[in-house]
Amino acid sequence: MASVPHDNHVHDEHHDHDHDETVLLEDENGNEREFRIVDVIEVGGKEYAVLVPEDEPEGDGVVLRIDSDADGQEYLVDIEDDAEWDRVVQAYEAAVEEDN
Fold this sequence. Notes:
Strand order of the largest sheet: 1-2-3-4-5
Radius of gyration: 13 Å
Number of helices: 1
Protein name: UPF0473 protein Btus_1907
Mean pLDDT: 81
Region (Disordered): 1-28
Pfam family, one: DUF1292
Strand content: 35-45%
Shape: globular
Number of strands: 5
Family: Belongs to the UPF0473 family.
Organism: Kyrpidia tusciae (strain DSM 2912 / NBRC 15312 / T2) (Bacillus tusciae)
Order of helices and strands: EEEEEH
Low-confidence stretches: 1-19
């Protein structure tokens, strides 16, 4: 689980997608890896962060849901529900298609 920078925002069609926000994620083996947040999208009233590895910007990306605790501190969580995952992927692909 990683904290999300407070200056995340949802992008409109005029955003250039040049980001400086990075997060450190830990895999199931305890290995840490730095990711850059390249987009934040909203689907069904929830926000999702699209991340790419800092050391492999052309590598496979990761999509995680942005949740917050009782104090309003944001954190990233895996999307475990297949239906939720499908909705997020469809929304992201539609947004990418619109940008092209």
